[in-house]
Amino acid sequence: MTHISTRSLPKAELHLHIEGTLEPEMVFALAEKNGIALPWSSVEELRGLYSFTDLQSFLDLYYAGMAVLQTEDDFAELAGAYLRRAAEQGVRHAELFFDPQAHTTRGIAIDTVIDGLLRALATARSENGITGGLILCFLRDQPVADAMATLESVAARSADLLGVGLDSAEVGYPPSLFEAVFSRARELGLHVVAHAGEEGPPEYVWEALDLLKVERIDHGVRSLEDPLLVERLRRDRIPLTVCPLSNVRLGGVASLDDHALPAMLEAGLVVTVNSDDPAYFGGYIDDNYSAVARALDLDAEQLRAVAAFSVEASFLGADAKATLLAEIAAWTA
Ligand SMILES: Nc1ncnc2[nH]cnc12
Ligand SMILES: [Zn+2]
């Protein structure tokens, strides 16, 4: 059994919903500050609800908690807290997902959200040397026209974004619905990624690749059900941003011991380890690294390989990648 500490292993986080870092304590503090009535009476009561049966049971609570995020300062505080924790856990680069439609439908301006998050990223860069950017996610269970309108609303400031993604309830909302939206995003020079194969079938992963032309697949764990798809992902070195603790907490995988991560590595896939919604799933990124290191008995070489994949799969430039890869190669447990 390995007990390697991976905290100091340099890594990139590529699958992190910033709203999923909203800890119950911050929910209550922001509710008080903003004069918002909550349906929960205490931090303990709210945290007690964090036992999920599937993706939707989590999403219901995730969207409810966001009501406390009102001002640019609130978004900066949220992202600042995450980035400090991430830096403590060895994160050197973080590409943050955010869900603007979950805020604009509550009357919050999209610029308020983006400006707050960008301010936190700038502060983290100067204080901790951590680099990063924003990936705007469309809610796939909302109308396609809303996604297109959201994209057009940021077209003039697309340089403030790294890319776009696709999240929320997956089954019944195939990537094919969003072909025109992703085409427009690519036209704006944005990187493109999508959640696929978390609860949805391998067919959704094929659609994300062939129709949305994504550069990474978020989750993708169900890809292993389709050998031809595995071959495609391997051949084209399409990275998968896997979130082990999330898969267990949402019931996609019975326990960490049963996680497909070793099989994915064995199959020659570019697999990365990420935290998804750490406030809800019981751990930030290094909690995910250390949990898989223990449960799956990964050695230092395998852990360095996963960290190197995270850098390779990132949207950093070639020089920044080379610097981080050299640090990872030099890392010893
Ligand atoms: N794991 C996940 N899957 C889909 N949508 C999400 N939104 C936040 N976390 C998500
Ligand atoms: Zn996710």
From TrEMBL:
Q: Which cofactor does it need?
A: Zn(2+)
Q: Where does Zn(2+) bind?
A: 15, 17, 195, 276
Q: What is its EC number?
A: 3.5.4.2
Q: What Pfam families does the record point to?
A: A_deaminase
All copies of domain Adenosine deaminase, residue ranges: 10-331
Q: Which GO terms describe its molecular function?
A: adenine deaminase activity; zinc ion binding
What cellular-component terms does GO give this entry?
cytosol
InterPro entries, alphabetized: A_deaminase_dom (IPR001365), ADE (IPR028892), Ado/ade_deaminase (IPR006330), Metal_Hydrolase (IPR032466)
The record's keywords, sorted A to Z, are: Hydrolase, Metal-binding, Nucleotide metabolism, Zinc
Keyword Metal-binding tagged? yes
- The site (Important for catalytic activity) lies at 219
Q: Which residues bind substrate?
A: 277
Q: Which GO terms describe its biological process?
A: adenine catabolic process; hypoxanthine salvage; nucleotide metabolic process
Co-factor note (free text): Binds 1 zinc ion per subunit.
The residues annotated as the active site are: 198
Q: Which catalytic reaction applies to this protein?
A: adenine + H2O + H(+) = hypoxanthine + NH4(+)
Q: Which Gene3D superfamilies match?
A: Metal-dependent hydrolases
> Does Glycoprotein appear among the keywords?
no
Q: What function is annotated for this protein?
A: Catalyzes the hydrolytic deamination of adenine to hypoxanthine. Plays an important role in the purine salvage pathway and in nitrogen catabolism.
UniProt family annotation: Belongs to the metallo-dependent hydrolases superfamily. Adenosine and AMP deaminases family. Adenine deaminase type 2 subfamily.
The record, for HAMAP family, names: Adenine_deaminase
Protein name (Swiss-Prot/TrEMBL):
Adenine deaminase
Q: What does UniProt list as this organism's lineage?
A: Bacteria, Bacillati, Actinomycetota, Actinomycetes, Micrococcales
